[in-house]
Write a structure and sequence with these properties.
- About 20% of the residues lie in helices and about 35% in strands.
- The chain contains 3 helices and 12 strands; from the N terminus they run αββββββββααββββ.
- The chain has 3 domains: about 100 residues, no CATH class; about 45 residues; about 40 residues.
- Bound molecules: zinc ion.
- Zinc ion binds next to loops.
Length: about 200
């Protein structure tokens, strides 16, 4: 039986440390996984101090990617810790499991990544429709918010820059534009006489 639970952990929460699967209940519509966190301490998000003083615990129910057409619900027992740092504003905080949960998250991180990828490929309305096909009920607005929450990539600094001038308003306003010669992207534009500087990626 212990082997079965270990294999279930590998299947259900792969590569995630400090989580133990306690039981799995399957019916026609749902796979319900009961699990708990086992880390001895957690890091306070307010001050980054570690604490092992447990204040209490409760259940969270983040939705996970469906399995064999069934909705997967994780019943995860998480603990609230007391922060021992007297200069920290947070008296208590809830542990998070890297790769599995985030604060106020309704989805596991795995399902969030899947929905974000769907949103990137199909955008809001079609993305929500596609998520419904594989068994996740989500609004188009939620899909768009997941895409918008992605960190912005810093464009690489241009190695070769070209400078050009242009005129608008029939030659009454002049501007200068900097262009990344290798990517042909406009880097910065300045209108003469107005000191207005716009940056375009
Ligand atoms: Zn703290």
């Amino acid at each position: 039986m212990e082997d079965v639970v270990l294999r279930l952990e590998e299947l259900l929460v792969p590569s995630i440390a400090d989580v133990v699967v306690l039981s799995v209940d399957v019916n026609n519509e749902t796979v319900r996984i009961e699990a708990c966190c086992t880390a001895v301490a957690a890091v306070c998000p307010g001050c980054d101090d570690r604490s092992s003083r447990v204040h209490g615990s409760y259940l969270r129910f983040p939705a996970d990617s469906p399995s064999a057409g069934r909705r997967v619900v994780l019943c995860l027992k998480v603990r609230r810790f007391m922060c021992g740092n007297p200069s920290c504003d947070r008296r208590t905080f809830v542990e998070q499991v890297p790769g599995l949960t985030r604060r106020f998250g309704r989805w596991t991180e795995g399902l969030r990544s899947t929905l974000t990828a769907v949103g990137l490929a199909l955008a809001g309305r079609a993305g929500a429709r596609m998520a419904g096909v594989f068994g996740v009920s989500v609004s188009r607005g939620t899909v768009l918010r997941m895409v918008a929450a992605l960190p912005e990539l810093e464009p690489p600094a241009p190695r070769v820059v070209g400078v050009d001038e242009y005129a608008t308003r029939k030659g009454r306003v002049y501007g200068t534009v900097l262009v990344d010669v290798e990517t042909r992207r406009c880097g910065a534009r300045r209108l003469a006489g107005s000191l207005r500087l716009t940056v375009a990626a």
